[in-house]
Specification:
- GO terms for molecular function: nucleic acid binding.
- This is Rve domain-containing protein.
- The chain has helices spanning about 1-10, 15-20, 80-95, and strands at about 40-45, 60-65, 70-75.
- By secondary structure, the protein is of the alpha+beta class.
- The radius of gyration is 21 Å and the shape is flat.
């Protein structure tokens, strides 16, 4: 009976679409090490989220790898201009000019 259930779930389209996705890394994970605070940042967009005031339904988030400091800003649309604004206003003006991998 167990094998019949396993076979059914493997063949069921709805079961496959709603099943948990395996997110195992293809290789072992390694830590990202930053040489000092505010030297390296990671950025990502989150959304769409429930609509907030000003039709804002996205979030741009920047995280400093060393300190884990988070800068975030709600957005109505995802554009280059919005990303540039967050980098300028919340990172460069507060912590200085970012450098690429050459130190």
């Amino acid at each position: 009976m167990h094998q019949n259930a396993v076979d059914f779930v493997r063949k069921c389209d709805k079961c496959q679409r709603n099943a948990n996705i395996s997110r195992r890394p293809l290789e072992p994970l390694t830590s990202i090490t930053a040489p000092w605070p505010f030297a390296q940042w990671g950025m990502d967009f989150i959304g769409p989220l429930p609509v907030a005031t000003g039709q804002k339904k996205y979030l741009i988030v920047a995280v400093d790898y060393f300190t884990k400091c988070v800068e975030a800003e709600p957005l109505a649309t995802i554009t280059y201009k919005n990303a540039k604004s967050l980098i300028w206003k919340s990172i460069i003006c507060r912590f200085g000019v970012l450098k690429d991998n050459s130190i």
